[in-house]
Amino acid sequence: MIVLDGKKTSQKLRTEIAKEVAEMIDNEIRPPHLVAILVGDDGASQTYVNAKEKACQSVGMTSSVYRLSSKTSEKELLAAVDFLNNDPDVDGFIVQLPLPKHINEQNVIERIDPAKDVDGFHPVNVGKMALGLDCFLPATPNGIIEILKHYQIETEGKHCVVLGRSNIVGSPISIMMSQKKYPGNATVTLCHSKTQNLAEITASADILIVAIGSPEFVKENMVKEGAVVIDVGIHRIASTTTESGFILKGDVDFAAVSTKASHITPVPGGVGPMTIASLLSNTLKAAKISRSI
Ligand code: GUN
C-alpha cells in the first residue's frame, strides 16, 4: 500500500511557484497578492485562512486577511467584494465559506470578478471548468488531480466513484474525472445522500474519492481490494491521547481501509496541503494574466 503524500507533493508544487515569484521580484514586478475575507469566528475557517496566509508567505507572495464581524450584513460584504474587485494591488481573493446564515453565499460568489476568483467558484469559472476551458480550477478538486498526476495513477477507463455532491468538491471532481484528458477519461459515478446500495457502488470503485463530511464513514467493506482512495474529509475529534486534546480524522477509516487500498491519502497530510498549493497556483496565474506575463 502506498500512502499518497500530499505534504511532499505540494512542496514540489510550492517550490515551482516560489521560483516564478522570485523571478517576478528579480524583474521588479510586484509579487502576487492574495486576500482572504473571513466573516465571523468559525474556528475551522480561521485555521484554514491562517494556513493560506502562511503558505503565501512561504512562496514569497503577499497576503492580507479582511476579518469582518459575524454581524456583517450581506450589503457590507458585497461592498468589500466590490472594493477588492477594483483594487489594482489585489490579484486574487477568496471569501472563506461557510458564511453566517443571514448572508446568501451565492450572491457573494456571483459578485466576485471572475478574473480575481482564485477559488474558481464564480459561475463563469464553473462553466468554463465544465466545458474544459482555461479557467481558475477549484482548489480541492485540482489538488486531487495534481496528486493523481504526481503518483502517475492510471485513470483511463477506470470506475471512479465520488461520494458527495458539493459545489466545492464532489460535483467539480466528478466532472473533471470524466473529461477527455489525463487524469480523467474515467467512468464516473456520483453518490449522495439519496443513493441506494451505496456500499455496493463504492466497492466497485477503482478510484474512490470521498467528500461526504462524516468522520470515518468509509469502512473496509465499502472498498475494493487494490482501490485508490482519496479522502477529502477533515474532522477534529476529541481525544485523550494527544496534548492538544483532539485528533484529526478523515471521511475514511484509514486504519481499516489501508489494508485493502493500493494507494490512500492520509488525514492530515493528504488532500489538505494540495488544496493550498492549488490556491497559490491560481493566485500566481491571476497575477500573470492581469500583468500580461
Ligand atoms: N471552505 C471550505 N473549503 C473552502 C475553499 O476551498 N474556499 C473557500 N473560500 N472556502 C472554503
Write up what this structure looks like.
The structure is a single chain. The protein has 293 residues and is of the alpha/beta class. The chain folds into 2 domains: 28-113, Rossmann fold (3-Layer(aba) Sandwich); 139-271, NAD(P)-binding Rossmann-like Domain (Rossmann fold), CATH 3.40.50. Helix content is 39%, strand content 16%. It contains 10 helices and 11 strands. A 6-stranded parallel beta sheet has the order 1-11-8-7-5-6. The radius of gyration is 19 Å and the shape is globular. It binds guanine (GUN).
Q: Estimate the global geometry from the Cα principal axes.
A: globular
Find the CATH superfamily of the largest domain.
Answer: NAD(P)-binding Rossmann-like Domain
* Overall mean confidence score, pLDDT: 97
Percent helix, as a range, is 25-40%
- Helix-strand sequence: EHEHEHEHHHEHEHEEEEHEH
**CATH architecture annotation of the largest domain:** 3-Layer(aba) Sandwich
CATH fold field value of the largest domain? Rossmann fold
What is the spatial order of strands in the main beta sheet? 1-11-8-7-5-6
Q: Keyphrases for this structure?
A:
Rossmann fold; globular; binds guanine; about 290 residues; six-stranded parallel β-sheet; 10 helices; 2 domains; three-stranded parallel β-sheet; alpha/beta
Helix and strand layout, with pairings?
Elements: E1 2-3, H1 6-26, E2 33-39, H2 43-58, E3 62-68, H3 74-85, E4 92-95, H4 105-111, H5 123-131, H6 139-150, E5 159-163, H7 170-178, E6 187-191, H8 198-202, E7 207-210, E8 228-231, E9 235-238, E10 246-249, H9 254-257, E11 263-264, H10 271-290
Helix pairs in contact: 1-10, 2-10, 6-7, 6-10
Residues 94-97, 119, 139-140, 168 line the site of guanine.
